[in-house]
């Protein structure tokens, strides 16, 4: 049985990671001043709500995990929404998100084209499939929201250390600003070209997933999880403009 670990992330952690470039912010100094006044909570992550290990023929077992994240809603003083820290997934790791309550915007970038961004809104019940080895970041600009995600060990990649997985490669040099309810990609550092933005959701079409994602790691058979991994790795169901 999985042992759920709850961890809250405050604005101060976002600022500290921005100093190491694993997070990009539009106006770090302004947010730092706000943090000195009130170090507000951004989200609480409940890690390992579900966990499964699935054996594979001629390969190491795959560990599947399910997390639930509760986001505060609203905008920070710079116009950036309440957000996750964001990170790059390892090669071969499957990850799917579903909004359980509220609505969010998820930013996704691929390692071979970090300036080509997917920025799409996902409402309650909708899923986002993160391409293999991609960067992803969740924003909650409107109201409190709850997001559940499943992810795999990638067949041999060890289970993640949640305290260290965000300290890797620098984030893509963009963040989002919201004005009049619309998201705009803002360059957080100087880049040769502005970002190319797709606003088509990265859907789960073609993947055998339940209507409510949290039930997958509880009810699916080992064979179904192996088939999901095979489908995802050979033909990821990602719609792009």
UniProtKB/TrEMBL annotation:
Q: What domain of life is recorded for the organism?
A: Bacteria
InterPro entries (alphabetical): RmlC-like_jellyroll (IPR014710), RmlC_Cupin_sf (IPR011051)
* Name the record gives this protein: Glucose-6-phosphate isomerase
Q: Which organism is it from?
A: Kribbella albertanoniae
**Which classification does the entry list for the species?**
Bacteria, Bacillati, Actinomycetota, Actinomycetes, Propionibacteriales
């Amino acid at each position: 049985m999985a042992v759920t670990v709850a961890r809250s992330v405050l604005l101060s952690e976002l600022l500290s990671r921005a100093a190491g470039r694993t997070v990009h912010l539009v106006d770090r100094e302004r947010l730092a001043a706000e943090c000195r006044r009130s170090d507000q909570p951004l989200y609480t992550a409940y890690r390992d709500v579900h966990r499964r290990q699935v054996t594979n023929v001629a390969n190491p077992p795959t560990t599947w995990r399910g997390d639930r994240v509760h986001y505060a809603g609203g905008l920070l003083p710079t116009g950036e929404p309440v957000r996750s820290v964001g990170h790059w997934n390892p090669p071969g790791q499957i990850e799917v998100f579903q909004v359980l309550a509220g609505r969010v915007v998820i930013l996704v970038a691929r390692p071979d084209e970090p300036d080509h961004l997917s920025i799409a809104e996902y409402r309650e019940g909708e899923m986002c499939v993160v391409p293999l080895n991609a960067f992803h970041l969740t924003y909650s600009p409107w109201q409190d929201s709850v997001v559940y995600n499943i992810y795999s060990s990638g067949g041999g990649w060890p289970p993640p250390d949640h305290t260290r997985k965000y300290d890797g490669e620098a984030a893509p040099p963009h963040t989002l600003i919201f004005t009049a309810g619309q998201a705009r990609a803002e360059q957080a550092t100087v880049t040769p070209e502005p970002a190319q933005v797709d606003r088509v959701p990265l859907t789960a079409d073609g993947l055998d997933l339940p209507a409510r994602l949290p039930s997958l790691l509880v009810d699916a058979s080992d064979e179904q999880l192996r088939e999901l991994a095979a489908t995802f790795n050979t033909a990821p169901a990602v719609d792009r403009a």
